């Protein structure tokens, strides 16, 4: 079972998700320490919690498939939000499909859909890229979406947000942008305005960031961008 968990506020979890975690034989967690805090908060005890993250995603699959074939009920969770959405899980889900193993999902909080709901932009066409690549690859991606119309949604780390916004300003322009920092948490910050203003506001920041950039369309080669070396 793919189980969505809170992206910040512990109360943002469904009744069905809690029931699934309580009934599971095994819980797979991206970070066992964070998941144990969640289980403790909801008084879910005595469950074996196994590490399942980017470091062991591939090599863990045979063991997990063996447990599933033995009839065990397994819940897959990540640090926050929906597994498989820029988080570990897709390889395991693919393996289950290939082996004919039954799957189910407990929908839950998602930074992606939460940001789309909050931004106020036309979201009929969405380009979601997860975490942006760095350096030349990031600038290449931005040039590729420059001529599109819709919204570009991505996650970014606080140490890279300034460089990313500089690239957006130079390659795409001073478009409208929405940035959510620490969504649903105590120090949640929501911003909507221009890229240039966001660059000043978030140049020295902390916490996880979800960004929605409004794309205006037009030709990809409009404007100038610096050469990559």
TrEMBL record:
Predominant subcellular localization, coarse grouping: cytoplasm
Catalyzed chemical reaction(s): cytidine(1402) in 16S rRNA + S-adenosyl-L-methionine = 2'-O-methylcytidine(1402) in 16S rRNA + S-adenosyl-L-homocysteine + H(+)
EC number annotated for this UniProt entry: 2.1.1.198
Record's keyword annotation contains Methyltransferase: yes
EC main group: transferase
Residue ranges of every copy of the Tetrapyrrole methylase domain listed in the record: 2-198
UniProt subcellular location: Cytoplasm
GO cellular component: cytoplasm
Pfam families (UniProt xref): TP_methylase
Keywords: Cytoplasm, Methyltransferase, rRNA processing, S-adenosyl-L-methionine, Transferase
Family the UniProt entry places it in: Belongs to the methyltransferase superfamily. RsmI family.
Described purpose of this protein according to its UniProt entry: Catalyzes the 2'-O-methylation of the ribose of cytidine 1402 (C1402) in 16S rRNA.
Name of this chain's protein: Ribosomal RNA small subunit methyltransferase I
Source species of the chain: Pseudothermotoga thermarum DSM 5069
């Amino acid at each position: 079972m793919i189980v969505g968990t809170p992206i910040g506020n512990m109360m943002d979890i469904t009744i069905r998700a809690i029931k699934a975690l309580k009934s599971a034989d095994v819980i797979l967690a991206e970070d066992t320490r964070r998941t144990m805090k969640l289980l403790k908060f909801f008084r879910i005890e005595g469950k074996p919690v196994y590490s399942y993250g980017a470091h062991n995603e591939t090599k863990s699959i045979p063991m997990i498939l063996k447990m599933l074939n033995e009839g065990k009920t397994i819940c897959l969770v990540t640090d926050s939000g929906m597994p498989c959405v820029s988080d570990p899980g897709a390889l395991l889900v693919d393996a289950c499909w290939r082996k004919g193993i039954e799957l189910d999902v407990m929908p839950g909080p998602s930074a992606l859909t939460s940001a789309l709901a909050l931004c106020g932009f036309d979201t009929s066409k969405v380009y979601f890229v997860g975490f942006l690549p760095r350096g030349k690859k990031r600038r290449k991606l931005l040039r590729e979406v420059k001529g599109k119309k819709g919204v570009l949604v991505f996650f970014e780390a606080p140490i890279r947000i300034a460089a990313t916004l500089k690239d957006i300003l130079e390659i795409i322009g001073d478009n409208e942008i929405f940035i959510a920092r620490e969504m649903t948490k105590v120090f949640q910050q929501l911003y909507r305005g221009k890229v240039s203003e966001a660059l000043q506001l978030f140049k020295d920041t902390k916490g996880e960031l979800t960004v929605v950039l409004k794309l205006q369309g037009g030709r990809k080669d409009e404007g100038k961008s610096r050469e990559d070396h």
